[in-house]
Amino acid sequence: MTPTHAAPPGAVPRTRGTGRALLLASARALLLLVAVSAAVFAATELLPGDAAQLRAVPGAQQEEVQRLREELGLDAPAWQRYAAWAGSLATGDLGVSLVNGRPVADALLQRLPATLALVGGALLLAAPAMLALGWWAGSARRGGGAPTALLTGGAALPSAVVASGLAALLSGALGLVPPVSLLPPGRPPTESPELLVLPVLSLALPTALFGASLLSGAVADALRRPHVADSRRRGSPAWRVAAVDVLPFLLAPLTRVLAVSAGGLVAAATVVETLFGYPGLGSLLVASLASRDLPVVQATAVLAAAVVLAGLLVADAVAAVADPRGRTP
Q1: What pLDDT was estimated at residue 122?
Q2: Which residues, 6+ apart, have CB-to-CB distance to 295 below 8 Å?
Q3: How far apart are CA 319 and CA 225, in angstroms?
Q4: Between 20 and 30 A from 253 (CA), which of 54, 139, 196, 324?
Q5: Cα→Cα distances 170→32, 165, 198, 234, Å
Q6: pLDDT in tens, 162-185
Q7: Cβ atoms within 10 A of the Cβ of 23, count?
Q8: Are residues 203 and 304 in the same domain?
Q9: What is the pLDDT of residues 2-44, one digit of tens each?
Q10: What domain count does the chain have?
Q11: Of 287, 126, 135, 144, which Cα lies nearest the Cα of 202?
C-alpha cells in the first residue's frame, strides 16, 4: 500500500490557506483603492482656483462665476461631491470633463494606447535589466553594499535629467532618433517606433535601477539559503543554480517590483511625455491640471493607483502559488 501522510492537527490545507490569503489580499486592495480615491479627491480640492474661474471670461462678475460653478456642480460641499464621484466610479462612470463636456472615459481611452505602448516598452526593457542588475548587486553583497548604493543613486536621478541626457546623446550628438515624439494624428505609436526610443529609454533606465536596488536584497537572501549552498557543493552549473534554486524565490518580489514600477511609470510618463511632446495620459494629466479639469485629473490618478494595486494582487497570487516555502512534500 502507498503510505499516506496525515496533516498535523490544526493544519490548514494549502488550497484553503491560499484562497483565504488571496481573499484577504483582494479586500485589502479594494480598501486601499477607496483610500487612494479619497486622497486624490482631497488633493485636487487643495488646488488653487477651479474650472469655473478659468472658464469665465476675463473681468467676469462674481455672479457669473458662481453661475458657472453651479452649472458644473462645484457649489456642493466637498463630501457630497466625493460621494457622488465615488459612487459613479464604482459603477464604471468616470464622469464628464468640466472643460469640454466629453465623457472622461473617452478622453482616457483616446490617450491610453499611446501610454500603454510607452509603459509596456519600458517594462519589457526594464524587467530583464533589473533582474540582471539585482543579481549582480545581490551576489556582491558579501563584499559590501556599494553596488546597491550605486543602483539607488542612479535611480534617484530625476526623470527630466535622464530624459535630457538621453536626448542630448542619442538625438543631439549621434542623431539617431528624433528629438521629439509628436505622433501623426490617428497613427498608432507602433507604426513610428523611432519616436518611442527616447521616451521608452527615459522611463526604462531609472525603473531598472530602482527595481534592481530592491531586488538585490531578495537575491542576497536567496543565495544564502542552505539548498543553494548544497546545490553548489554538488557541482551544479551556475545557470541551474540561478534558474532552479534561486529564481522561484524571486518570482514574488519581482512581480511586486514590476507592479509598483508600472504605476510609477504612469506617473513618470507625465514628465517624459511633456518633455518629448508625446500624446499620452501624462500630457493629458498636465493639461487637465492646468485647466482644473478635476474629473480627468482624478480618473487618471486613480487609474495609476489601480494599476499598482492590481499588480500587487497578482504578486500575492504568484507568491501563494509559486513560493517554494509554501509547498508540501
Answers
A1: 92
A2: 85, 94, 95, 96, 97, 98, 104
A3: 18
A4: 196
A5: 41, 9, 8, 47
A6: 888 999 999 888 888 888 877 765
A7: 10
A8: yes
A9: 444 444 444 445 556 667 777 887 888 888 888 888 888 888 8
A10: 2
A11: 126
